[in-house]
Hints:
CATH class of the largest domain in chain B: Mainly Alpha
Number of helices of chain B: 5
Low-confidence stretches of chain B: 2-9, 169-195
Number of strands of chain A: 31
Number of strands of chain B: 5
Shape of chain B: elongated
Largest interface: A-B, 91 and 77 residues
Number of domains of chain A: 3
Mean pLDDT of chain A: 95
Oligomer: heterodimer
Shape of chain A: globular
Mean pLDDT of chain B: 85
CATH superfamily of the largest domain in chain A: Aldehyde oxidase/xanthine dehydrogenase, molybdopterin binding domain
Largest sheet of chain A: 7 strands, mixed
Strand content of chain A: 15-25%
CATH topology of the largest domain in chain B: DNA polymerase, domain 1
Number of domains of chain B: 2
Strand order of the largest sheet of chain A: 4-6-2-13-10-11-12
Amino acid sequence: MSESGVAPEPDVEAETERDEESFTGRSVRRFEDRRILTGQAEYVHDKAPEGCLEMALVRSVHAHANIVGVDTSAAEAHPDCELVLTVEDLKDEYNPQPCGLHGFQEWSLADGKARFVGEPIAVVVAENRYLAEDVADLVDVEYETLDPVVDGMEAREDEVLVHADYGSNVADNERLTFGDPEGAFEDADHVVEGEYYWGRVSGVPLETAGAVAQYDDEEDAFYVDCNIQLHTLVDDTVFETLGYPPEKVHIDVPPDVGGSFGTKIAIHRYVNLAAMASQQLGGTPVKFVEDRIENLQGGDVHSSERQYEMRLALDDDGTFRGLDVWFVDDFGAFPHYPVNQVLKPLSVLTNAYDVDDVAYEYDLVLTNKTAQTAYRGFGVDPHHYALEMIVDEAARELGMDPTDLRRRNLIDPDQMPYKLPSHNIYDSGDYPAALQRIEEMIDENERCEGGLLDPEVVEQKRQEGKYRGTQPAVLIEPGVSGSDWTDRQRSDREALDDRPRDDVAELPEHFRVELEEDGTVRTWLATDSSGQGHQTLVSQLVADELGVLPSGVEVDYLDSVDAPTEYGSAASRMAVMLSGATVGACDGLVDGLTDLAAAHWGVEAGDVAYRDGAVERVDTGETLSLAELAELDDGTGEEAKTRATYDYPHPATLEEDFDEALRSKYPVYPTAAYGANAPIVEVEVNTGEVDILKFYTVRDCGTMLNPMIVEGQAHGGIAQGIGAALLEEFGYDQDSGQPQAITMFDYLLPSIENVPEIEMDHTVTPSPFTETGAKGVGEGGMIDAPASVASSINRALDPLDVTADRLPFTPDRVRERVRGADEE
Amino acid sequence: MSTDNTAQSGELPTREVTVTVNGEEVTREVEPRLKLSDFLRRECGCRGVRVGCEHGVCGACTVLMDGEGVKSCLTYAVQAEGREVESVEGLSEDGLHPIQESFHEEHALQCGFCTSGFVMATKELLDEDPDPGREDIEHGLADNICRCTGYQNIYEAVERAADKMDGEGDGDKMDGKGDGDKMDGKGDGEVGEGD
């Protein structure tokens, strides 16, 4: 089923002469690059309309405090002050921000109580940011401090309430059982248990949040340039807050966004405040650019922090019988939109293993920390980590080889498409082959004389206190999320079991294509981008559909008003959704063009044919080029034949087997990309330092639309995964609730020195569920690398009986555990 | 603070500063607290100078001052008095510099926010060592953070640039040989500018 092939070198420039081959599937270099490399790209930080003022925020210095008073008089008296806003000003005209769960009220500025360090309390506007900060310093906030609740497990006890009116810090909980987990745990020969902690991490893109908002008095409408992610989906967090209908709030995201990784989905607070400030100033544009400390400390952009309790039931021969997953996820002060991060793991509940009987339960808790947003992987990364850790634990307790134990339980290719107990379906894949291939790579290159895992070298290094090891494993990346399930937590969950299939409302992918006068093909995406190369990808796909060169295809973006509500760039969706959407739209355009040509020649549509950027009259061989066709359509017909719009239906809606998951709002991810990793780690037990010497990986995302981009995504994801496993964490002082990582000196992003050489191989198992056979691929690496690094550390430290049971596995944690092991 | 800033400041003290930016002399009256990064972005039109952290860790704002890499967010404009500053805008008058070309060819950028800084750090590295090994590249670029590429293709790009520049001397403009100057087939670098 799968064929092995290495991604070709990037060797295709877009203006290459067309040959028989398609552009899709080749490493076409990116159109986005030139403007970026020459400094001409216009990120939102670069936007500076005439007369634009700048905004600064006064933020809480306490984790938990009553706000007794906000004295703005000194600030307002400053000669450079243009505007000061507090929550009282907001309440006069605006609404609270929509939350991810019912029962919470969140204003864009703190209302009577500060719930995390960095929570905005007042807005100040001045001519520039330097002056705005001068003025902000004069705002005097009087606090009455309260004890904070900082630990997720402690929060469950409700001794300190983050939201007193809600009455509990547990904002959401659900226990789901699939099959008969209770029976499986009773029958099995062994039950192993483990506790694992996933540190608070996030995407931390190099570009912080930014917004330039302008209120138009005449239209009574807002125009906002900003780098929010999913601007056609989460625009409700802005227009509802402003109290305007969606068509009055134009949210436009520039073609260049300096990374997001999910995080910028939740920057609506800034967009709202800038828009309100502009309106209060009568329409003067107001710009806000978050600084890095604001971003790390109180930017609403942290992500998962989970404490897991895992149980695995298995028989003497190693066969997995049942799985029991329980965890607490610390969402911080408000449950923002990505609350469904706690549910996404259901889409890969048992990872690559065949287990029928599973229990899954979470407590979504609130604490005095900045709120969570989405981050690449959307909660699957900690799930895979905890699951692989309990598998390692089982191998230890049963005295089995951990690779053999994994192999024994892998889903067999004959079982594909494989329906998980939680109702999502893996479309295709050969997991045993992937494990086999990664084992071969390690055997051939490293477990041999002169290799990094040459047994003699391993032994010699161990004498020096350096423990080496690797643990191959197969990990699944769920792709192409559906949209309907994402509000499960705001639904009546008991009623879902009886929900009719017709009630399922999936968002399609919207796409437009139009012929310009000179024959250029102009297209519009209804989503935003943040570095993925969508313009290049769409150019390739459209070029193939229309038989033109990618350089003849322009790719633009629609703002939130022009675009319909749709999901957008998240959840490893775009490779699949854009390939379906471009095919549909181009088919529509070709129909229009052939009609146009047939009418011109006065023949039937069947007498003409579209080929390679022209319509040909079959009997005479005459042709009309795209430019000529564009001219023909110039205002003549009652309906334009040179443009087409298409809404590509979500692929899961086309497969009946997904109906059960769709009806009941269980996570629906119709593609399952996968990878087998084997990072080679070396742990220096005297210093606690973990070094990854080399990272082997075999990956399969079905058809690779642009192998160069696919590899780039995997490289970046793996680097982020290494960061989460070893370096990155938003720590908090457990007494005061003060954040401990508010600069990049504290929140450590992997540098070129931390990321090893990545040796990557590919197999190609096309998805049967998608237009091109592609599978979602944007989150791999981050989803799979942390689990693999942790498992490999377990393998390396096996002689000391130390495991990476807490990520990031920092030197102090390594030393603590090694010391503990020495004492036993 | 991370925003752009005009140098007008009411009654705050100002000082005149003259800096040669990409070969052109720029004289402005600025507040002493104005950062070089903001000076370059606002006063000199060098918006390719990116500001990612403002505390000297990420390196996105890296420019060359008298040939040496500095983080312009940790430098005040007044400290650049009388100095020559080179940013990504000054690398090539037309077409792409071999370093820019190599970053494109090796897919060494994704979101691009770190790219100006990496390109300038690479320029400094290759000016000092025209043929760096992997470890030299690692040390030379350790002050810059990229969150997208995992650095794999950045190594490749630096090596490719070193090959291209070999024998040409550094800082020369490319003649557009190969296909770097036509990569988007439009020549205006404004693909997909939204409406």
